[in-house]
Write a structure and sequence with these properties.
Elements lengths: L1 H11 L6 H8 L3 H4 L6 H24 L4 H18 L1 H5 L12 H17 L9 H20 L9 H18 L3
C-alpha cells in the first residue's frame, strides 16, 4: 500500500495525495486503509522512508567502484534522476523529522547520508569539515533536482550542461578543501 501511495504521489504530487484517492486507486473503501496506516501523516512518513531508502540504493549503487570526481558525478546524477523520476515521494522527505533513532525514516536517511559520505572519501575532506561538505552536496543536488522537477529552469542554457557544470564546480571545491 505504501508503494501504491508513493506511485500516486509521484503522479499527482504529494499535496494531491489523499487517503480517499489512494483507496480509489486500490479499489477499496477509505476506512480499509486505516488497517495498514494510521492516517495521512503516517502514510506520508512511510512514503518518506521508502523514498530515502530508494534514493540511498540509487546513489550507493551508482557510486560502486568509483572514487573522486567519478563518484561525485555518479552520485549526483543518480540522485537527480531519482528526484526527477519520483518527485512526489521525494517531496515527502522534505522537513520530515524522525521520531527516534529506530524510526525507519532515521535509518533510511542514514543510509543515504552514508552513500554521500562514501563519495567524500575520494577527497581530502578533514573530519570536522565532513558535515559541511555533506550539507553542500545535499544543497547542490537537492536544490538543482527539485528546481528542475518544478520546471523552474526556463532560460535557454541546456539543463544537462548546467548540471555537469554544477558537478565540476563541486569537484573543484572539494579538491580545494574547506575553511
Amino acid at each position: 500500500m505504501v508503494e501504491a501511495g508513493a506511485a500516486l504521489a509521484d503522479e499527482v504530487g504529494l499535496a494531491g495525495l489523499t487517503m480517499g484517492l489512494l483507496a480509489e486507486r486500490l479499489g477499496v473503501r477509505t476506512p480499509s486503509l486505516y488497517k495498514h496506516v494510521g492516517g495521512q501523516e503516517d502514510l506520508t512518513r512511510r512514503i518518506a522512508a521508502l523514498a530515502l531508502g530508494q534514493a540511498a540504493d540509487a546513489v550507493g549503487g551508482a557510486t560502486q567502484g568509483y572514487a573522486g570526481r567519478d563518484a561525485l558525478a555518479a552520485a549526483a546524477r543518480a540522485f537527480r534522476a531519482f528526484v526527477l523520476a519520483h518527485p512526489g515521494r521525494y517531496a515527502a522527505t522534505i522537513g520530515m523529522e524522525p521520531a527516534g533513532p529506530d524510526d525507519p525514516l532515521a535509518t533510511e536517511g542514514l543510509r543515504l547520508l552514508d552513500a554521500f559520505t562514501a563519495v567524500l572519501r575520494g577527497y581530502e575532506v578533514a573530519g570536522p569539515d565532513v558535515d559541511h561538505a555533506l550539507r553542500m552536496l545535499r544543497s547542490l543536488c537537492h536544490g538543482f533536482a527539485t528546481l528542475q522537477s518544478a520546471g523552474a529552469f526556463q532560460w535557454s542554457a541546456d539543463i544537462d550542461e548546467s548540471f555537469e557544470w554544477l558537478i565540476a564546480f563541486a569537484d573543484r571545491g572539494l579538491r580545494a578543501g574547506g575553511g
